[in-house]
Automatic annotation (TrEMBL):
Superkingdom to which the source organism belongs: Eukaryota
Gene (UniProt): Creg1
Similarity comment: family membership: Belongs to the CREG family.
Protein known as: CREG1 protein
Pfam families: CREG_beta-barrel
GO CC annotation, single: extracellular space
Annotated localization: Secreted
Signal peptide: 1-20
InterPro entries: CREG, CREG_beta-barrel, Split_barrel_FMN-bd
Residues in CREG-like beta-barrel domain copies: 22-190
Gene3D superfamilies: Electron Transport, Fmn-binding Protein, Chain A
Keyword terms: Glycoprotein, Secreted, Signal
Length: 193
């Protein structure tokens, strides 16, 4: 690999992660960093479906807290949803949910040869609820989502898509050995990724 090609590869990796990950003692910043660098997450709801009623049900959703790039994330996980989706039907009955995002979906863990379950391959667990955004927040949600997921703009209009956000009430960070770290929403929103 030529020097220029190697430099381009390193630059692409740095751009993919924005910058170096925060140190383990900065759990709130790590939570913001991981969310901002992830394009999707696993959303768990309590099922309302026949045969599964009241049991956990996990589904993958695209998300975004803002356009790509360092310091551009709001920390709010935005989603583009339709009532036709099975998990959204669960949320219409009980809006409580949990959301997990992991650096395993970025080049970081593969580069360091970290298994997704290794604590050094940081993941964040958010608990809270899903709420539709109001009109004043819809443009922000649209910009956040469509900047990372441009395909969304062409999804069928007759599916009645709407913008929603994950209203965070609890945050757990696993980014190092020794167990989960608890971060309050106030701590989370007070730092930049």
């Amino acid at each position: 690999m030529s020097g220029l090609a190697l430099l381009c590869a390193v630059a692409a990796l740095l751009l993919a992660l924005g910058r170096a990950i925060p140190p383990p003692e900065e759990a709130a910043r790590m939570a913001r960093f991981v969310l901002h660098n992830c394009d999707w997450g696993a959303l768990a709801t309590l099922s309302t479906q026949e045969g599964l009623r009241g049991r956990p049900f996990v589904n993958i959703f695209s998300l975004s807290d803002g356009p790509p790039g360092p310091f551009s994330g709001s920390g709010v996980p935005y989603l583009y949803l339709t009532d036709m989706e099975i998990s959204v039907q669960d949320l219409e009955i009980n809006s409580s949910a949990s959301l997990t995002v992991s650096l395993a979906q970025t080049p970081y863990c593969k580069k360091h040869k970290y298994d997704p379950q290794n604590p050094l391959c940081a993941h964040i667990i958010f608990c809270g609820s899903i709420v539709k955004v109001n009109d004043s927040e819809a443009d922000l949600a649209k910009k956040a989502l469509f900047s990372r997921h441009p395909e969304m703009e062409s999804w069928p209009k007759d599916h009645n898509w709407f913008f929603a956000k994950f209203n965070i009430t609890n945050i757990w960070v696993l980014d190092y050995f020794g167990g989960l770290k608890i971060v309050t929403p106030e701590e989370y929103y007070s730092v930049k990724p």
